[in-house]
Amino acid sequence: MEKLQHIALRYVKGIGPKKAKLFAKAGIESIEDLLYYFPRRYEDRTRLSTVAELKEGQPSTIKAKVLSSRQHTSFRRRGFSITEALVGDDSGAIVCVWFNQPYLKNYFKTGNCFILFGKVERYAGKLQMSSPEFEPTDTESEESLNSGRMVPIYSLPEGITQRNFRQLIKHCLERYLPKLVDFLPFEIRSRANLLNLAKSLLNIHFPESEQMQKQAYERLSFEEFLLFQLPLVIRKASRTQKQGIAHKVEGELTGEFLKRLPFTLTAGQQKTLKEIKADMASALAMQRLLQGDVGSGKTVVATIASLMAIQGGHQAALMVPTEILAKQHYEKIKSQFSAQSAGRTTQSLSLEGVRICLLTGSGNSREKDRIAKEIKNGKIDLVIGTHALLEEGVQFLRLGLVIIDEQHKFGVGQRALLPRKGPNPDVLIMTATPIPRTLAITLYGDLDISVIRELPPGRGLVRTMVCTTEEKDKAYAVAREQVRQGRQVYSVYPVIEESYVLDIAGAKKMYEKFKTDEFKEFRTGLIHGRMAQSAQDTVMSQFKKGELDILVSTTVLEVGIDVPSATCMIVEHAERFGLAQLHQLRGRIGRGAHESFCLLISDASTQEAKARLSAMAKYTDGFRIAEQDLKIRGPGEFFGKRQHGLTELKVGNPLEQLQLLRQARQEAIRLVANDYELSAKNHAALKDKLLERFPEYKERTVAG
Question: 462-620 in CATH: which number?
């Protein structure tokens, strides 16, 4: 039987090549894509409101006839059109208004009937609907799809109407559902009390009732969660199939390094180090995720782990997303290894003897070739680098430990490439973007998890304040006062060039303005991603050395950059940054003993943007920030890509369906324990679906 994902949408009656291109832009290319293109919401049209029943502030749906319409140009904004339609039913009439949509000029003809959905507002003392969604309701034969029921509303491809899209969905459901294979084994559906696939798809698009829609949503969420979990569970189980490296975790290098540290490790660092030691001493390869807030001391723990590998005769590699961060790690670790220890006796191994190198994409090819040759010959113990470590020419003699910092900055395939350069090396993945532990345990199910919650003692308090554009002079005054006290300031912008379309200032223009106006008495520098790497390095070096007072920047600051004397950050147009991004940026200050100030300048108008800024002002703990971020953005945007290539969850919501997610994980564990290769006959359809979704796992997880 031909699979639905192989039947192109263009061959469906009424589509053809031209419309197929419109659908393709929305990611709909096959029948399966179409059936899995779910409604974004539903309108309950079992009882429409009358015009007389409309109340201010409430979103409502009405069925009304156009009584009159007109289009005119705004007297305030040249070329800005306003379309007005007076619509009514037997109970009364209301004005509907659409802004700058000139194509509506001839749409609302007197006598035509429409279904209209929108929020009711009061303007000039009268109720009106502003920019309501609308669709004509003339054809009696389609009435059952478009009224008198819970009606699905879709995010539509350009040029496709809601009515036409519903008709297409209905046609394809009727024709192709009999060909659909339910890949969830019957025993799993029975244990989880789930609908079959056909009934779920019918009721997600055209619910028989609200209860049936909920059951369909639960079934489709569960299958997403199961497909999400299976590769993770299989991957974790596969670790027991391969021989790893049992490292020498106690030895001269780690002991010497700990003695030299000018501070005591926090309780979180010590606990994490104990977990890593146990992993690295085992012959099973470590796969551990280290979560810790910005500045919590993850790098120190990673350095000690590197020394565990090195003192046993293996190499370690630390991969980071930017050259600036790679250089910072290199210089800091190198200085820690070369620090003189008073009264130290000569030992067979010493930190000074550890051979460390930096490998990035910049620099001359001859030098890079020399470093690559030394890595291959085993003359380098620890290599710190960027994506350059993934190049084919970089080979290791005895790679024993891979550390990946800020793992979310690397693509799905990239994270898997570096460990393949060694004989099943241990892997430590670090992130400063924490997520709540209950979710982390399930969503990062292929990894063991360590968490560092507390910050090292002696850090200054960071105060976060939200200012409007009218109040930004106060923010500038705080910055000036900090510089006069011998401290340094970051000024961050979302774009390099000024944008008239977005109506936001850019870093370059504000840099010029600051030099001649607000901060003319101070030394100001500029850094952004379009500058040559050497130029970026020069500016950052000047700032770290204290040769610049104020650094105007884009988000290149987000990862790395440790300047203890930087105590003030101004983020302009803060509403244009994500919550996790704002928290990462804020982590660049407060790294010394002095009180620091994070000043968010914004005229945020949307509820989501206001919620982000409010969370930033209220919380400093990264885990609380992560919880708020999940609530505001939803899991699809928050998690993004995972190891197995899941781009996003279409319907499943881990935050709201945690119990269902855990249930799916338990079923995945049960499946893999009883049938590791999913070779049983009743698992064949599930195995096909898994390999179809995640082809990159074919060789590494499921035999086939």
Answer: 3.40.50.300
